[in-house]
Amino acid sequence: MTDGHPEDAVPDEALAVEVAELAAIVGDVTAVDHDLEAPPPGMWSRIAAAIDARPDEGAEPRLVLVPTEEPVPGDEPAAAGPRGSRSPALRWAAAATVVVALVGAAWFLRGGGDDAVPLANATLEPLEALEPAAPPASATLVEVDGHLEVRLEGVDVATAEGFVEVWLLDDAAEQLVSLGPLRPDGTYLVPDGVRVEEFPVLDLSVEAVDGDPGHSGDSVLRGAFTV
Amino acid sequence: MVSPDPDVDPRLASALVAGDDTALEEAYERWGSLVFTYCARSLGDRALAADVTQETFVAAWRSCGRFDARRGTVPGWLLGIARHKVGDARRQLRRTPPVATIDAADAEDVTDRPASSAAEDRLAERLLVAAALDELADRPRRVLESTFFEQRTQSEVAAHLGLPLGTVKSDLRRGLALLRAHLHGLGEWEAAP
After folding, report:
1. Cβ of B48 and A123 within 8 Å?
2. Which of A17, B57, B107, B130 is buried most deeply by CB count within 10 Å?
3. What is the Cα A26 distance to its own chain's centre?
4. pLDDT tens digit sequence for B42-68
5. CA dist A147 → A51, A106, A110, A196, A199 (Å)
6. Residue A137 contacts B where some CB pair is shorter than 8 Å
7. How large is the ipTM?
8. What is the pTM of this model?
9. How many CB pairs under 8 A join A and B?
């Protein structure tokens, strides 16, 4: 269709230069880069709730614990609604899906289960105290029968001596509450009266058997609860 | 997630600038996977990547009035934000040292680290190029792939694909413009912090 134009008979040098400039970047692209991973379900609901609830605020998301009455098995993102009248959906999201998003997001991670209502989750990353470093683990904060529980998954800490203890810390890591030694069932009762909003950081430490009830300072895994 | 219609981008961009929340949702539907994949591959942690993806879109929403479609595309801009959020998340992880060192009140000496590593920049660029290629129609995509991956000249691409040279040039011109626009978007967030 363009054969009639004489300039189309010769290559475009400027384009060739541009190709050469981009070759290093484009040439590195592999099939993996086309293979995108979908975000977890319920993600849009979380975003919608966040932008509507805090429209003018610059602060980072804070942990907000919202007790709910019963588990919600999964989360229908607002994205499923009809297009064109999305603002009402967003308003609705702010009013109602904070709870759904909390539950849905954590529920997705846990894969459903008992009467526990997931409220928040944490990813525990290794700290330097242990060689070799422990692999990352995860924790979910759940409400069961009016009590809060922390449920740990994937903890694999090898200690030559001593034992592993589980703690809740405040943001500054200055105040702490012990949840006790590592348990085989991975479930830890949060003492009534302890507000996880004030102690949002889950910490695992290696403790010597020396009778000292304090934290050894040798943390091996740590992560903050987020919703 | 990636629409085959590149023309949707200017419309979406202007809706975003106007603060239309349905535009943010559309951007999420189209590029949520791109952002999440970038975060997950940078951080190596899906739960953290989900948090950072959320922060990225929330930050995009708060700053979308400053988005300039002439200086980059929406996906480039989103990944530029994500790159900073990944850096923030990394610093956050490092900011809480073991308890033993806390009493020295030295918890703040960890923020010297650059917001993003060179490897993360390369990753963002590769993902954007891949997204741009996926957005192109079949013929221009084949022209670009033949040019870059088989290192053919324009004349060779024309012969190889059985296309007039003029078609190869116009496909190449538009394809390169899209690549550049995506990649420019990446720097847009730094230009207007």
Report:
1. yes
2. B57
3. 32
4. 999 899 999 999 999 999 998 888 888
5. 30, 17, 18, 12, 16
6. no
7. 0.77
8. 0.53
9. 182
